[in-house]
Amino acid sequence: MTDTMSDTSLRMARLAGAGFCCAQIFVLLALEDLGRDNPDLVRAAQGLCLGAGDCAGPCGALTGAALVLGLHAGRGQAGEQPHDRLPLMLAELNDWFRETVGARHGGVHCGAITGGDCTAPDRAVCGAIVAETFERTLDLLAENGIDPTQGRPE
Question: Please, how many CA atoms are within 13 Å of residue 75, restricted to the half-sphere of its CB?
C-alpha cells in the first residue's frame, strides 16, 4: 500500500467512524483535497447511500465516485460547459465497477454487495470497495488531465 493510500485509508476510517456513509465519504475526501467545505453537497450525497435508500439501488461507492467525477468535470452554472471527457470517465468508471466489484459480489447494487442486508453493511467489505473505487476515481481524473487538488479545470 502506498503512503497516499495509507493516508486515504486513515481519512476514510475517520469519516466512517464519524458516521458518514460511502457516498458522503467520497464527497468529503474530494472536498478535503480541494481545501473546501460544502455541507449541502455532503447532505445531498447521503441520499445515495445504501443503494439510494433502496437495497436494490446502486452501491454508494459507485454513485459517490460519479459525484466526484462530476465535481471536477461537470457543469455547475449557466454558461459553463462540462469537461468534454466526463461522459467517457463515467462510462469507464461504470465498466470498471461492473468488472471488478460487480464480478466479485454478483452485482453492483447495494443488496448484492451486502448480501441483502443494507441496514448494516459490513464495514470491512464496504470499506475495501470505497478505498479501491476512490483510487480508481483518482486514476480516471489523472488520466484525463485533472488534478483532484486544483478544482475544476477551466
Answer: 8
